[in-house]
Amino acid sequence: MTGFEALGLSESALAALRRVGYESPTAIQAQAIPPLLAGRDVIGQAQTGTGKTAAFGLPIVEYVDPALEEVQALVLTPTRELCIQVTQAIRAYGATHGVDVVAVFGGAPIRNQEAQLRGGGHIVVGTVGRVLDLVSRGSLVLHDCRFVVLDEADEMLDLGFLEDVEKILAATPSGRQTALFSATMPPPIRALADRYLYDPLVIAVEAATLTIDTVEQFQLPVETREKAAKLVEVLRAEKPDQAIVFVRTKIRCDQLFRTLRDQGMNVRALHGDLSQGQRDGVMLAFKGGRVPVLVATDVAARGLDISTVTHVVNFDVPTAPDTYVHRIGRTGRVGRSGRAITFVEDRQKREMEAIERHIGTSIAPWKPGASTTPATVTTRPRRHAKPHVSRAADEPRARLIASGGRAAGIAVADLVAAVTRATGLDGEAVSDVTVLERFALLSVPAPEADRVIASADGVEVCGHRLALERAAD
């Protein structure tokens, strides 16, 4: 424990680290913990899986005074799943410190969370929308909150939450200590940091170091019609302790889940069309080790932080190199080794070459072991499915206005799900979604704009009848 002892942590924090099995600090922990303990504002640029939760969670636990009843620290997260995981981690770090950690997120009864806040809560971990709702109700008072963390800020940007983040920050003391963690640093995130952080120390952990050093990467040329059978072959050859299989669409996620299940595999699916209760059940089963294979879409898998994942399979090549890095970062967590295998169809070779340029290395071909026996599978036909529509990354986009917003109970995921179901577009084709109080904005491929407007007109979202029109230039 010499490494952690050198960071200035208390004996109770060191004991907590011993209990959870941490032996030495990761790069982000070693660089962020001392300045945070010293009261500095910090910007941490690091991918998930680098140990950043401990990097801010341990200083928060050290900062909090259990004798004071008010909310002293707030951690904002983009998703419910990440909120739950951060809460569990901070509770583990503060188990002997006497701190009370309350999680607040959408999809759960707000009255129960209000009752928890009335009963205590030195540290609140919450999703942006639910925190803002509780603040507006007067149920969450942040007047004495002097430590704020924005976790995975770039995902907050992607989900259209920055306006609400600023409203929450405005409800906290101007003299607070603030930490911002983000895998990337696009201009809006940098501007947010410039406005709300005071003389921050910037810490950057390079993505290439994280992925290449801890994850063995392979690619496998496949033909479209053979992909499902090849996946079965790969999984049987690799024998993963736990694997996440990433796909682009919810339809494909369900299809692949059924194919693997019919082959006798213990597998579950995770995508945005599942109810929150179903998603929680899947995540608990996977995190508890009861399910070895999870088929998931990118949006649904946000916030997954499970150290026992040994393999990631990209059944579909991600359209963006950053997405590839994010996916394979789900294995090789916090110094452990992992394996990532990407299926590449002929038409996806350019995307794969872009990924190799991005990570600065070539990806070796995957070869099965000598004892591997190719498997044959029978896939079920897709019934009543919308047509699959994919688009080039550089295709012109059209900006649309959708009726209904937060006042109608509509969230980003609700709107994307409704539009993709009605139009057959991939989830990736609906982008730049911002949900405001009375309406929402979204972008779609320009050639599909009129069809999207016609197809989604009158579709029900959270009890609201959707109406779309083009936004003015």
DSSP strand count: 20
The CATH class of the largest domain turns out to be: Alpha Beta
CATH architecture of the largest domain: 3-Layer(aba) Sandwich
The best one-word shape is globular
Give me the CATH superfamily of the largest domain.
Answer: P-loop containing nucleotide triphosphate hydrolases
Secondary-structure-derived class? alpha/beta
Q: Indicate the mean pLDDT.
A: 82
**Residue windows where pLDDT falls under 50 for at least 5 positions:** 207-211, 369-393
The number of helical segments is 18
Strand content: 15-25%
Q: What is the C-alpha radius of gyration, as a whole number of Å?
A: 22 Å
Largest sheet: 7 strands, parallel
Task: Tell me the strand order in the biggest sheet.
Answer: 3-4-2-5-6-1-7
Structure notes:
- Helix 3 (27-37) runs parallel beside helix 4 (52-63), helix 7 packs parallel to helix 9 and helix 15 (321-328) crosses helix 16 (349-359).
- By secondary structure, the protein is an alpha/beta fold.
- Helices cover 38% and strands 19% of the residues.
- The longest helix is centred in the N-terminal third of the chain and has 14 residues, at 80-93.
- It folds into three domains: 2-205, 3-Layer(aba) Sandwich (Rossmann fold), CATH 3.40.50.300; 208-365, Rossmann fold (3-Layer(aba) Sandwich), CATH 3.40.50.300; 397-470, 2-Layer Sandwich (Alpha-Beta Plaits), CATH 3.30.70.
- Strand 12 (311-314), helix 15 and strand 13 form a beta-alpha-beta unit.
- The radius of gyration is 22 Å and the shape is globular.
- The relative contact order is 0.10.
- The strands form four sheets. The chain has a seven-stranded parallel beta sheet with strand order 3-4-2-5-6-1-7, sandwiched between helices.
- Residues 207-211 and 369-393 have low confidence and may be disordered.
- The protein is built from 18 helices and 20 strands.
